[in-house]
Amino acid sequence: MVGIVLLGVFVLLLAFGAPIAVCLGMSSVAAILVQGAGKPLVAVMSVLPRICSASSSKFVLLAIPFFIISGNVMEKAGISGRLINLAEKCLGHIKGGMAIVCVVVSCFFAAISGSGPATVAALGLIMIPALVKAGYPAAFSCALMAAGGAIGVVIPPSITFVVYGSIADASITDLFKAGMVPGLAMGAGLIIVALILGRKCDLKVSPRASKEERLKAFKDAFFGLMMPVIILGGIYGGIFTPTEAAAVSVFYGLFVGIFIYREIDVKKMIDIMVDSCSTTATVMFITMGASLFAYVLTRARIDLAIKDVMLSITGGNWIIFFIIVNIVLLIAGCFLDSTSALYIFTPLFAPVAIELGINPIHLGVVMIVNLAIGLFTPPVGVNLYVACGIGKISIEDISKGVISCLIAMLIVLLLVTYIPAISLMFV
């Protein structure tokens, strides 16, 4: 009965277009009321503040607002334009070079922002018009930017890895290490697709930049290039934890933006804090709602029932298990944001994976690559809507352009899923 109420209210609210955090929270409250029928209302509802407080006050989650602020700081500091200029000076003279620039800069900016939509928003205003001007169709240009932005949740430092690590009690440092190669593989897949499509288009190339121009562009972008070096170098070198690294990145970004590039003034600082607070509040609201949902699943023993069913279906075969994981998450990614999906499915998949001898780090990477694909998959792919707004095209048009990018990402997903060494080589 509790499971029926939980899923029924969730689906009903989702069908009415309620925000995902509201769907998760209200369905959980309805299920808790049914579960506590006959008991005093105060006693039944007293569990809500405890769960919400415990789920949102974990030390490891402190990295999320810091990485969000850091990404906003570097965006407002003009880093994106400098990175694009450097990449264009180095690669713009190659046929299809502008597409390579788009993907390379997306990967690099992902290592600063840790967020998919933020990467699309920061780079899309410059890259989408540049791709169209180079000769790529508008639909594909927007799709490539949306897919490139999705790499932001895989390449470290990734906010999504922080969320998974807090749920699965996995090492975030190891997760960051594990995400590096899959993220670069996703970028390589997009570059190959762009170059293949580029053969059919009348592509324009930029004049070859001189050594002096490249050196000037490198000097201009140097302090931005150092951002991921400081963050990841500090984490991997054991100098500071991921949470401390996030705080360091904020101070470094402010120093660069205010004193070196001199792009951040009081007005931009206010905008940075408002945007960061808004995004953080959204993430934490989802976290609390999803934690309530996971609590109900556990209390009602639904998670154990699902575990038994999955073990029965897989018959102890990890290959079949990952087929189920990929299908479920690819479908879920079309409708849920990555934070909600992780809170719902990690408690269901992780115990089965441990039972089958699968490394939780490998499971985390597979889950997050799936959810990264969901960021640019219709009908609810967040990156698609951001790119559509910038490129001024319809969701129908960009959905056609995204097919080739989706095929490349699915191939990478299969490789990451069934060749664990791709994720675990540095762990």
Short description:
It is built from 22 helices and no strands. The protein has helices at 2-15, 20-35, 41-45, 47-56, 63-76, 79-91, 97-113, 116-134, 138-150, 159-168, 172-198, 211-236, 242-260, 266-299, 302-314, 318-333, 338-355, 360-374, 382-391, 395-401, 403-418, 421-424.
Describe the 3D structure:
With 427 residues, the chain is an all-alpha fold. The protein folds into two domains: 1-57; 58-280 and 300-424, no CATH class. It is built from 22 helices and no strands. The chain has helices spanning 2-15, 20-35, 41-45, 47-56, 63-76, 79-91, 97-113, 116-134, 138-150, 159-168, 172-198, 211-236, 242-260, 266-299, 302-314, 318-333, 338-355, 360-374, 382-391, 395-401, 403-418, 421-424. The protein is globular. The model has no long low-confidence stretch (mean pLDDT 85).
